Amino acid sequence: MILLFLSSLSWYSAEVSHATLERTLGEDSIFLAKRLAAQLDEAVYNKYHDIVLFSSGKTVHEFLNESNSIFGSMSNVQEYIDEQDENWTSVPFEEITPFMQSLMDNPVSVSIFERLKEHYLLDHGVDPYKEVFLMNRYGAIVAMTSKASDYRQDDEAWWNITVTAGSYYSDIEWDDSAMSYGMSIAHLVVDRELGELGVIRAFVGIVETVSEIGLEKGQSETTEVKVVSSDGRLIYSTQPFALLEDVSTEEFYLRMQGSSGYFMAVEGHRNRLYSYALSQGYSDYQGHEWRLVVSYDVAEVMSPAVSLRSTILQAGFALVLVGVLLAIVVARSITRPIEELRRAAAEIAGGNLDRRVDASSSNELGALATEFNAMAQQLHDSLEHLEDRVRERTADLNTANTKLSVEVMIRKRAEKELQHTLRVLAQSNAELRRFSYLATHDMREPLEAIRSHAKFLEHFCADTLGSEGVTHLRQIISASERMQRLIDAMLTYSEVAAHELVREDADLEEVLETVLESLKETIAQTGATVTHDPLPTLHVDAQQISLVFENLISNALKFRGPEPPRVHISAEEDADEWIFSVEDNGLGIAPQNLTKLFGIFQRLDTDPETPGTGIGLAIAKRVVEKHGGRIWAESELGRGSKFIFTIPKEKEPQSR
Amino acid sequence: MSSRKVAKKKTGMQVVVAIVVLVTLTTVLFLRAQAERPEPVTICAILPFSGIGAYLVEVKDAMLFAVEHINRWGGINGRLVEIVFADSKSDPYVAEQEMIAMEELYHPLMFVSALSNVSMHLRDIAEELHVVLFGLVVSAQDFTEGKEWTYRLYSNAQGEVDSFLTTLRYLRSNDIGLLHADDAFSMSVASMLAEQYREGTIESIEISSTSTNFTQPIADLIDNEVIVVAALRSQLVEILIQLNHSGYSGHVLATSGASSPTSRAFPELEGVYVSSPLFYNPTNTLAADLRESYLETFGVELTHQGASGYDLVMLISGLLEDEEISREHLKELLDQGFVYSASMGVLDILPGSHEMVFPLYAARIEGGELVFL
Fold first, then answer.
1. How confident is the model at residue A166 (pLDDT cuts 50, 70, 90)?
2. For residue B105, what are the contacts with CB-CB under 8 A and spacing of at least 6?
3. Which among A240, A243, A347 has CB closest to B319?
4. Do A299 and B73 touch (CB under 8 A)?
5. Cβ of B282 and A125 within 8 Å?
6. Rounded distance, CA A65 to CA A170, Å?
7. Chain B residue closest to A218 (CA)?
8. pLDDT on residue B9
9. For chain B, which residues lie within 8 Å of any Cβ of chain A, measuring from their own Cβ?
10. CA quadruple A419, A425, A428, A430: dihedral sign
11. CB B72 within 8 Å of CB A221
12. CB contact under 8 A, A239 and B281
């Protein structure tokens, strides 16, 4: 902001200086134009004054008086003048007749040449008097510096004005005899005693007149001076120009208003400062309202302001530049350490924890760098510590991995062996199941034959066998029937073990009713009371579950106490399973036997009369376990038994 | 690659891009400035830097002085002026070769030449090429006669003769001897003086323009009351010195070459009547200013020969201001006639005139200065 303000101030100062110089130059050049215009008027007047002075001399007066006397003595002076005029104009202009030469060589002509022409030439370096004529009062030329266009002059307009007014100043005009543009000035020569003697006329070159006063001497190298007539024609210029060229349509002319002023305008390819002043006349010379125009190349006259502006702007620019550079240096001095910090941080992030930054600076950045280095060192130390720990852990992990690998290897080997064993076992089991099934199945037929033959013998040969024979025979029959039951039980066990579960939604109330119906005769014989809680409908193999109920209830009826058997079947729903129990008031089971109950062929009752195969609970256990449940017994001798089994609930498919 | 290397590489790339942009920008701006700069206005000047006209090397300096002045303020219509110089060796045929070569190379706006014998030869080529030829320091009377493209900016032989006639009238002497060289300028002066001097006869002796010993011709003319010498400046001064050393006691009139400051500086020229341009008149303020600034710049006096070169360049510049710059238009402007206040005097040129002649005035060397009669 400060730089911007300084720049604006510099620019404003330069502009003010420029405007001030322009105004000063304009006013100064108006002064110059006025001065030159006055000098020009004075120079014109001086030409007139010179011929007045010259013609006021005694020699001229005497010369004119003598001429007037001669002409006055002529009988017909006008005729003489006409005749000479005709002779004058009848010869080519370039030709000088002896009469003409005599007029140029007379003492007055020589005097005019010497006192006017040569005087100006030597004193001023120019010859403004293009021609000077002296006429007597009759209008005839009596002396001249060069050949005039004609001899008679009293028929000219200027003559009449001069004679009337005593003086004459023409505007710029062409003169045939002078072959140039200039102004005519004339004076009526009057002698106090003799009266009007004649007229002296000079044709004055305007360029020479202007040059005489040194108009071209300007204030600067590009100064140009123009003199423009009142009707907009160029009278003079320091540049090559055509006399009386019409400049009234040019910009500089159109912009001239009033008697003086200044303005800027473009001329050609240049910006120029114009000033002008109106000629006001001098003494009794009234002037012709010529405009004297002075112009300069703006580039030159304003060069001090331009230079000042340039200097100010350069200084401003330099100031801004220095400011910017300073800002860059300061910014760099700040950003460089920060950049170094950023790079160092990046390097550290990339793993180079040895990277440090220059912390020699005593400012905040130095403090920051010191903190950064400390942090980096801390990070370095932490990492080293961490690496040590990692190394240790890695070593431990390697050891554990080795152990685990060994363990895995061992376990894989064991698993292989187990799988092999399982496969062998499954094969053995299958073979065993096949064998037991076949055995039991195949054994039933000869056993039935034994029992049939024994029955036949008992029935038809009892007399022959005697009582001892019948007893043995009956033992055979009994044994074969027991054998038959045993085989049936084994067959059942085998089927339970071999067959897959056929699950279906089974109303266990109905299953229980079916079982009770099959045991109806036993229940009736034992006077047992069988009760049950409401049983659920479960997705189970109903046929096999009925074996569980049948075996547990028949055991309760079978191992009765003195009291008529009371059997109660209950069902309880748990979170994950149904818990069924068959409770009786029978003999009860010794605690040491509770774990043996469910082994095959386990008979805790030693009484051979007690019916039973020792397979029923094994079947029940096999069925429950096939359904995923458990079975166990709770009992005390003499206090009845409670067989409990569970059927897990089938898990509902989880909804998502 | 590490981030540090990447950053360094990035910074390096930025610097390279910045330099490339800077160089490209500078080149574009330079080429644009070159393209926008208007072609200069070329003038070819064939001047004698060696040979009998070697002294005219000052014309070159004066022309360059004018060009420097013009170009300082923007040239002509925004176009700078350049002048290409060639040494004519004061030999017309060398000058011809140079002119043909320059036309081929530069096709200049106009040609400038100096010395009558050289310029008289070149004018025919200029007419053929339709290019303006300005003769400087060419006094041969008929230089522009019948020519369309040939112009003179200088005093002519008539100016020399007019000045002589004024001086002779002043001296009221009829016993005149004329020693003139055989160059074009001197021959013109001699023949015109002989023709226009009506008061008596002139005893005339012609010498070679390369001659350096004038004992015999001086001896032949020593009895005359007045001896008029017409020669080029380089030879003129030597003749006047030898004339002085010969013990001649009569009046000596010399062509304008003797009016230059370097000539006047010889004590042997004291009292010699010379034809002098207005340039040396102390009342000629324009010339006085020019002489002063030239002296300040070059440390030597500007001669009227040199001033003619200055005036020519300033005149051409002034004429072409706000005008079409071409050979044809330059000729039109010159032929229209004009008035111009030059350092050598006021030129009031009538339409159609090819003679931009400065008048010469009678003067006498007194104390190394000119005193006009």
1. very high
2. none
3. A240
4. yes
5. yes
6. 27
7. B286
8. 66
9. 2-4, 7, 69, 72-74, 77-78, 278, 281-287, 289, 315, 318-319, 321-322, 336-341, 345-348, 350, 361, 372
10. negative
11. yes
12. no
**Full-model pTM:** 0.61
Kindly state the tokens that stand for A357: 């930054």
pLDDT of residue A362: 77
CA distance A499 to B252: 168
The strand order across the sheet containing B110-114 reads B81-87, B41-47, B110-114, B132-136, B150-154, B355-357
- Kindly list the residues from chain A whose CB atom is less than 8 angstroms away from the CB atom of residue B338: 240-242
Query: Tell me, what amino acid is at A632?
Result: W
How many CB atoms sit inside 10 A of residue B195's CB? Answer: 10
Is 50 exceeded by the pLDDT of residue A33? yes
Binary contact (A241, B340; C-beta < 8 A): yes
Q: For chains A and B, count residue pairs whose Cβ atoms are closer than 8 Å.
A: 94
Say whether B348 and A216 touch across the interface (CB within 8 A): no
Bridge pairing between strands A224-228 and A195-205 = unpaired
Q: Which of residues 291-310 of A touch B (CB under 8 A)?
A: 297, 299-300
**Facing residue for B74 by CB, picked from A121, A238, A270:** A270
What is the rounded average pLDDT for all residues in chain A? 84
pLDDT confidence bin for A545, thresholds 50/70/90: very high
Angle, CA of B359, B334 and A293, to the nearest 5°: 80
- For residue B77, which residues of chain A lie inside 8 Å, CB to CB? 268-269
Most confident of A162-176, A267-281, A475-489: A162-176
Supply the mean pLDDT for chain B. 88
What pLDDT sits at residue A410?
85
**Mean pLDDT of the A579-606 span:** 81
Q: Residue B125: which pLDDT band, with cuts at 50, 70 and 90?
A: very high
What residues of chain A lie within 8 A of the CB of B315, using their CB? 240
Instruction: Pick A300 or B93 by higher pLDDT.
Output: B93
Band (B12; pLDDT cuts 50, 70, 90): low
Q: Rounded to an integer, what distance in angstroms lies between the CA atom of residue B355 and that of residue B184?
A: 17
CA nearest to A347 within chain B: B3
What confidence category does residue A232 fall into, taking pLDDT thresholds of 50, 70 and 90? very high
Q: Which candidate from B4, B347, B372 shows the least CB-CB separation from A347?
A: B4
Supply the pLDDT for residue A201: 94
Order across the sheet with B273-277: list the strands: B202-207, B176-181, B226-230, B251-254, B273-277, B360-366, B369-372
Task: Please list the residues that pair with A195 across neighbouring strands.
Answer: A191
What's the rounded Cα separation, in Å, for the pair A247 and A233?
6
